[in-house]
């Protein structure tokens, strides 16, 4: 269900997500303050949209009712998250959470969220491009 729960209002507004009548919002951020300091800018690419604050999944995908016929094609919903400015040579903990009017977020039980880590290796500037594959 689009929107957010009352207890999530501050987080939703802090994320600067746009409310949509037909979509639920996804927001990713550094899980800890040091992680947030190492991520400067994120682009979200959704099925019909792109945004610099939040991604969105259209509600038409839920609930998934399975393929009716063998020849039916199912396209899973997606959000691509592009980290545009990440500090290199640092392991960064990322948390992405979902906002929905009927979705209870709980960090301890990992409900309505996913976590992952990213590490971008900095390539020294004085190495020729032909040697990059050998690093």
Automatic annotation (TrEMBL):
Top-level lineage group: Eukaryota
CC terms in the record's Gene Ontology section: sodium:potassium-exchanging ATPase complex
Any one of the GO BP annotations: potassium ion import across plasma membrane
Topology term for the membrane: Single-pass type II membrane protein
A Pfam family recorded for this sequence: Na_K-ATPase
InterPro entries in the record: Na/K_ATPase_sub_beta, Na/K_ATPase_sub_beta_sf
Segments crossing the lipid bilayer: none
Keywords: Membrane, Signal-anchor, Transmembrane, Transmembrane helix
Molecular function terms from GO: ATPase activator activity
Subcellular location: Membrane
Family label: Belongs to the X(+)/potassium ATPases subunit beta family.
Annotated protein name in UniProt: Uncharacterized protein
Species: Rotaria sordida
Lineage of source species: Eukaryota, Metazoa, Spiralia, Gnathifera, Rotifera
